[in-house]
Design brief:
Length: 336
């Protein structure tokens, strides 16, 4: 098993290179980059000319200087190798829009996404596992049918749509919760307890939107897996020999039923940190998701690539963590 995980760690390198090469090539050929934006801004500053007759506001020497400044004057492979060498040293470049270090921009927003991601992860696993178990042992009961209706309703509606509905009802109409943001306008003037209440009050609606879509998948996965386990021969034998049903569920069936959930645990690591850009956009939360979204819209390629580096590494490492979780949950599993 050690050899397997070593091989998986080594495979992270070529996979990461393949992902970044593909996206890096796209940023070099897609129109609307920083050079084009500078030309457009220079054109918009010209006055007294009709837009159609403005022509080129910058000279060829100025355009060439901009290309050299942003690194677009080199061949694709050479530019990628230079960028990758900086990434290995921890330098993700400088934003072409805000002129701030990309790494610092990501670190500034990482705690917010981590905050919402951890709360969502705890709620999803903390609620879905007991709920799935209750639905499995009470299959086809009124509790099972009503909870399934609620769970699948939440799954059918995207999280960001739920966020919009929550804002319309609880913020705009009833004014129970704030309209968005991570903290209120007077956060700095509050005492410690007031700051805690303010953050919690701004957390409720976004967290509901985060976890709504995951509830159905995790709950039904837990329910169906536990039902399959309960119908296994060894479970019927254990109950027939006098083992109480409750003990049979918790001692034998539960651990085996957690294996499918363990396979997806590592993949959720990337979601914890990168967040959901749609939900962060709806609630105006300045996290990793919103940063990635705005960088794509504004063609801020260094930030796009920086967010890609973090998210792709987390996803690749998360796949390895999933295998570790499976191995810890099921000792019968061996990786070769």
């Amino acid at each position: 098993m050690k050899a397997y995980f070593i091989r998986r760690l080594l495979l992270v390198i070529p996979t990461f290179i393949g992902i970044t090469v593909m996206v890096f090539a796209v940023t070099r050929f897609v129109p609307g980059g920083p050079v084009e934006r500078m030309i457009a801004e220079a054109r918009s500053q010209q006055t007294g000319m009709v837009a159609a007759d403005q022509g080129q506001p910058l000279s060829e020497d100025q355009i060439d200087e901009l290309r050299r400044y942003y690194g677009f004057d080199k061949p694709l492979l050479q530019s990628y190798v230079s960028w990758l060498a900086k990434v290995v040293k921890g330098d993700l470049g400088t934003s072409t829009r805000y002129y701030d270090p990309v790494l610092q921009m990501i670190l500034d927003r990482l705690p917010i996404s981590l905050y919402f991601g951890l709360i969502s992860l705890v709620l999803v696993y903390g609620v879905c596992i007991p709920l799935g178990m209750a639905k499995a042992v009470r299959h086809n009961s009124r509790f099972d049918n009503v909870s399934s209706l609620l769970v699948f309703t939440g799954y059918a509606i995207p999280g960001w749509v739920i966020g919009v509905l929550l804002l319309l009802l609880f913020s705009a109409r009833w004014e129970v919760f704030p309209l968005g943001g991570f903290v209120g306008d007077f956060y700095d003037e509050m005492d410690a307890w007031g700051k805690v209440k303010d953050v919690v009050w701004h957390t409720v609606l976004p967290v509901i939107s985060y976890v709504a879509g995951s509830f159905a998948v995790m709950t039904m996965l837990m329910k169906n897996t536990l039902m399959d386990t309960l119908s296994a021969d060894y479970m019927r034998t254990a109950v027939a020999k006098g083992l109480p049903f409750r003990k049979a569920v918790f001692r034998h069936a539960l651990r085996n039923s957690l294996i499918p959930l363990a396979t997806s645990f590592g993949n959720n690591i990337s979601l914890i940190l990168t967040g959901s850009f749609l939900i962060e956009k709806v609630f105006n939360i300045d996290g990793m998701g919103l940063l990635g979204y705005e960088s794509v819209v504004e063609r801020d390629y260094p930030v796009v690539l920086g967010v890609l580096v973090i998210s792709s590494l987390l996803f690749l490492v998360g796949n390895i963590l999933s295998d570790i979780c499976v191995a810890l949950t099921d000792p019968r599993v061996t990786f070769e």
